[in-house]
Design goal:
Blueprint (H helix, E strand, L loop, with lengths): L4 E3 L2 H4 L1 H14 L2 E5 L5 H15 L3 H4 L12 E3 L17 E5 L8 H4 L16 H26 L17 E7 L11 E4 L5 E6 L5 E3 L7 E2 L7 E5 L1 H6 L9 E3 L6 E8 L6 E2 L13 E2 H9 L6
Parallel strand pairs: 1-2
Antiparallel strand pairs: 2-10, 3-4, 4-5, 5-12, 6-11, 7-10, 7-12, 8-9, 8-11, 13-14
């Protein structure tokens, strides 16, 4: 089963048709490619350029921003610090940098040390912060736009999810995969499913991303220039009582260095994720967004 391609323009030209197509993707593949999303090419290019500049810095410049010393899922993850596939001994061969909702140090939520309510860590690179926050906001808006046809597909009001994402635990994650070293058993990112509601991913076109549809084998995700790759995360699968599927995926070691930019749209920390109306007897107990995300992150990072 190939990864379908949707046109975001259709959500206004033919909302019913777009909703049907989106719902089919969410139920069957859990992945789709989204074209004509409206996010400027110039901004996307700036994000990749700034990310490349960050990762090109020496470790001494990145180490003070380590995610290992930050309880709010922000900062730099060094090469070899994560193992996304918890069924194997493989260590991911990638670096990452996480940016969350931008909060001031005197924000009451920060002062109360609420879960995932911390300040972002910023490198000393001209334009980096402004570029990333601009991009964060426009992709957040696109994700919220996609949740409207998701709600319609589930026979809910279009704005059903809006109250759950007013100040989300969204994460903008910059990713850098060095070229394969040739070592046996190497992996860029181990087989896993994403944790949140939706993931919106840009890649530089370098091959490596694969998905494994339920009952199928691994297959390459096509690169469509200027398009997002969107997938369902475990939180939304849980919310829909397994009506939607969160599909395993991985990144193979690339022949050449590879960059990607992921935006993980997780709900507010205090949002209660419980089986939606009309989805049948609940398969999972209710859980807050923060508790669920923490449980997943704790299994990912190496000590």
């Amino acid at each position: 089963m190939s990864v379908p391609c949707l046109n975001w323009d259709d959500h206004t030209r033919d909302p019913e048709g777009f909703t049907r197509a989106l719902g089919q993707c969410c139920r069957e593949t859990g992945f789709f490619v989204l074209e004509n999303h409206g996010i400027a090419q110039a901004l996307r290019a700036q994000v990749f350029d700034q990310a490349a500049a960050f990762f090109a810095q020496p470790e001494t410049a990145k180490r003070p921003l380590s995610i290992a010393t930050n309880p709010h899922n922000r900062g730099w993850a060094y090469l070899g610090s994560e193992s996304l596939d918890d069924t194997s001994q493989q260590t991911d061969r990638k670096e990452a940098f996480n940016i969350g909702l931008d909060l001031a140090p005197d924000d009451p939520r920060v002062l109360r040390a609420e879960p995932f309510r911390g300040v972002n860590l910023w490198p000393d690179l001209p334009g980096f912060r402004d570029t990333m926050l601009t991009y964060f906001d426009v992709v957040w808006a696109l994700g919220m736009g996609l949740l409207q046809p998701v709600a319609r597909d589930l026979s809910l009001p279009p704005d059903h999810f809006a109250p759950y994402f007013t100040a989300p635990m969204a994460t903008l994650r910059l990713l850098s995969y060095p070229a394969a070293s040739g070592a046996e058993g190497e992996i860029g990112a181990g087989a896993h499913t994403d944790y949140g509601a939706l993931t919106l991913l840009l890649t530089d076109g370098t091959p490596g991303l694969q998905v494994r549809p339920r009952g199928g084998d691994w297959q390459d995700v096509p690169h469509v220039p200027d398009a997002f790759i969107v997938n369902i995360g475990d939180c939304l699968m849980r919310w829909t009582n397994d009506i939607y599927v969160s599909t395993p995926h991985r990144v193979l070691p690339p022949k050449h260095a590879r960059q990607s930019v992921a935006f993980f749209l997780d709900p507010n920390p205090d949002a209660v994720v419980a089986a939606l109306p009309g989805t049948g007897a609940p398969k999972y107990p209710p859980v807050t967004g923060a508790a669920y995300l923490q449980s997943r992150l704790s299994a990912t990072y190496k000590t």
